[in-house]
Amino acid sequence: MRRKRAEKFEKFVFRAKLTTLTFAVLGAVLSLGAVAARMSPADDGGGIKLPVLMYHAIMSDPGRSGEYVITPDEFRRDLEYIASQGYETVLLSDVVDYVESGAPLPDKPIMITLDDGYYNNYLYAYPALKESGMRAVISVIGVEADRYTDSPDLNEAYAHCSWDVLREMESSGVIELLSHSYDMHHLDGEVMGIARRSGEELAAYRSRLYADLERMQGRFRAELGHAPEGFAYPFGFSTADSRPVIERLGFLATLGVEGRTFVVTRDLSCLENIPRYNRPSGTSARSILETA
Q: Whole-angstrom Cα distance, residue 113 to residue 108?
């Protein structure tokens, strides 16, 4: 009798332990799911909306403001609004990590980009971003970085960042640097950024493009110890003819200039020609984001 009671008790204890273990495992799974939900915005299959703002020059003289120039006050007000709405800035590398491996993004992601690598970005955007706890992406024109490294000039109206300045910003973790070509940032007659020239043979075009972009990657490796995986199309000009060269050089993502909201998915193709909203003077980030 005692033996039967002992056997019944052991079975009861075993079942109790099994039930406890089951609930523990279920609780852990639910807890992990809750954490993941907090770390990444919901993707209902249609992708994650991620507005990308595009800035260029930031100058203290309001008289110079225009389509591609804003004042430091305008930039700071944009950052204040972005923070007030609960946005969190991400870098292009964060987006690539999400697409490639599912690495989490913030609940409300946004990307701030600055094209051309002007010295005034260092003077005004960089400190404002640091104070706000935000990050941004700067696309660098190689020939200009070399020019202002060899012949330093700190004029905020036209100077570009030297490699020393770019190195400082990147090492801070506040700024991510991308390629904007070595010397193809031109818009003059038949020359339209990296687009193929009229009458140019395809093989000659791709050879010319490869030489320029590879030279820029080489300058990054020489100055910063690595080459970027992102490329910003000069003036937004991109064609099917350029795509094989972009892929051959190992670029994982490219930035365009189309004014619409970027939708991130787990499909690598979404990283090609990422759309951005240009931010001209007089059109605040608030007005852009409210209609994005």
A: 17
- In this structure, what DSSP letter does residue 118 have? B
Residues 76 and 186 in one domain: yes
- Rounded Cα distance, 3 and 9, in Å: 10
pLDDT in tens, 15-48: 433 333 333 333 433 343 433 443 456 565 689 9
pLDDT at 14 (0 to 100) = 36
Q: Running DSSP on this structure, what letter comes out for residue 122?
A: I
For residues 243-253, give the mean pLDDT: 97
Q: Are 153 and 238 in a shared domain?
A: yes
Measured from the Cβ of residue 37, the count of other Cβ atoms closer than 10 Å reads 12
The pLDDT of residue 3: 39
The residues, any chain, with a CB within 8 Å of residue 95's CB and separated by 6 or more, are: 50, 105, 109, 111, 253, 264, 271
Judge if 56 and 94 occupy the same domain. Answer: yes
For the segment 116-165, what is each residue's pLDDT rounded down to a tens digit?
Answer: 999 999 999 999 999 999 999 999 999 999 999 999 999 999 999 999 99
- SS3 category, 235: helix
Give me the domain span that covers residue 18: 1-39
Give the total number of structural domains in the chain: 2
Amino acid at 287: S
How far, CA to CA in Å, does 14 sit from each of 24, 27, 112? 15, 20, 57
Whole-number Cα distances in Å, 281 to 63, 126, 127, 178, 290 = 11, 19, 20, 24, 17
One domain, residues 23 and 79? no
138, 17: one domain: no
Contacts of 161 (CB under 8 A, 6+ apart): 117, 118, 119, 121, 122, 138, 140, 145, 148, 169
pLDDT tops 90 at residue 4: no
Quick check: 16 and 8 in contact, CB under 8 A? no
